[in-house]
Amino acid sequence: MKLSIVVPAYNEEGRLGRMLEAYLSFFAERYGNDFELIVSVNGSTDRTEEVARGFAGRYPQLKVCVDPRPIGKGGAIMAGGRLATGELIGFVDADGATPPAAFDDLVRHIGTAGLIIASRRLPGAVVSPRQPWKRRATSRIFNFLVRRLFKLRITDTQCGAKLMTARAWHSIVPHIGLTKWAFDVDMLFQTRRARHEIREIPTTWSDVGGSKIKLGRVSLQMFLAICRLRLLYSPLSWVVALYDRLLGRVIVLGPVTQ
User: Fold this and answer.
1) In whole angstroms, what is the distance from residue 14 CA to residue 58 CA?
2) Could you tell me where the DSSP H helices lie in 110-182?
3) Which of 58, 175, 195, 226 has the fewest CB atoms lying closer than 10 Å?
C-alpha cells in the first residue's frame, strides 16, 4: 500500500459527499488499489457516517471509522491513522477546500522529507476566493505567534492538507496529546524535534462555504491552546496542571472542527 489519506469528519453531511466523489475517483484512477481513504467520523449528530458509507460499494479503497465522542480534528486524525497501512500517511479536510490534484502534489514532492505541507502563503499558491480580511489577519497573527513561540519556520501551519512518511507518522502522531486546536502545531514541533525534514509547497485551495467556525471564539481557543503547548515544552511544564484547571474549559468550548 503506497498511500493512506485520513479525512476527519464532524457533522459534514452537506460537504463530505462532493469531497469523497472527487478524491475517490481521482486516486482510484491513478493509484488503483495502491491507496486507501479513511473517513474518521467523530461526534457527529447528522448523516455524516451514512454519507461516507454510501461510497463503500463503489470504492473498496474506502474505510470508515466512527467515534461517537467529540474528540476533535486531531483525535479523529489519530483514530483514522491507526487503520492506515500506507507507506505515506496524510490527512485532508472534509470540506474539499484542497482539490485532489493538490494533495497528489504532496505525494509527488515529498522526496526525502518526513513531512510535507500544503501552504496557502507561499508564492505560487492559488487561493480563491480571497478570504475575508479578518480571517487573513487572524491567520497571520496566529502564524507569527507560532513562529516566535516554537521557532517553526512554517508559512501556513493550519492548512488542512499534510502528508508524512509512515516512519515519521508512527514515531510522532500517536504520541500527540493535544487533539484540538494545537494538533497541527504539536505535530510540526515534534517532527522538527525528531529531526525529520519538513517541506512546504504552494497549493491550490478554495474557501468552501458551510463552515461552523465562529472566528472570535476559535481565535481565543487557538491562542490558549498554543500557550498551553508552549508550557508543556518548557521548564514551566508544571504550570500546565494549574493552567488546565483555570482555562481548560475555555479551550474546549464550542465546535471542535477546524
Assistant:
1) 20
2) 133-150, 166-172
3) 195
pTM, two decimals, is 0.84
The predicted structure's pLDDT at residue 256 = 36
Bridge partners of 53, per DSSP, are none
Distance CA 94, CA 103 (A): 13
CA distance 100 to 114: 21
- Contacts of residue 25, defined as CB under 8 A and 6 or more positions apart, other chains included, come to none
Of 38, 23, 181, give the one whose Cα is nearest residue 95: 23
Which pLDDT does position 244 carry in this prediction? 65
Rounded to the nearest angstrom, the gap between the alpha carbon of residue 249 and the centroid of all alpha carbons in its chain is 22
Q: How far apart are CA 67 and CA 92, in angstroms?
A: 18
- Per-block mean pLDDT, blocks of 10 residues, the chain (258 long): 95 97 98 97 96 97 95 92 97 97 98 97 92 75 80 88 97 78 84 94 87 58 73 70 62 39
The span from the CA of 10 to the CA of 49, in Å, is 9
What is the residue whose three cell numbers read 492538507? 161
- Cell 507560532 -> residue: 146
Q: How far is CA 102 from each of CA 18, 55, 77, 92, rounded to the nearest angstrom?
A: 16, 22, 19, 11
Nearest to 41 by CA among 66, 72, 16: 66
Q: What are phi and psi of 119, to 5 degrees?
A: -115, 130
Q: What is the pLDDT of residue 212?
A: 57
**What confidence score (pLDDT) does residue 252 get?**
47
Number of H helices, E strands in the chain: 9, 9
